[in-house]
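In this supplementary section we document a worked example of the pipeline. Step one takes a protein sequence of length 105 as its only input; no multiple sequence alignment statistics are reported here. Step two produces a three-dimensional model, which step three serialises into structure tokens for compact storage. The input and output of this example are shown verbatim.
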Amino acid sequence: MQRIPISKAAPGMVLAKPVTRENGVVLMGEGTELNSMLIEKLGDLDIKKIAVKGRPLETGDEKTVEQLMGELDERFSSVAEDKLCNRIKEIIQKDIKLRREEEDL
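The serialised model returned by step three reads:
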């Protein structure tokens, strides 16, 4: 999943999360495939950003799973002997992998 400005949206992109108004009213549901008319409508409704499936835009600031795991190892290095901290680290590692897999759908 990637949050993108509506100005970068393109036909064929699929919403990863519903688009809602500030009051919670759903404008478009998760799974909606965008077309030029829907994109224009969202812009007219002053929607600034949307969440789309995958990573359709190269932002240059996305970290690889390997980079994220390396940073995690570094952060937990001072508590490597602590069982609880190791368990927390394992949970975070699984979460990173799961989120990346979901994003790539």
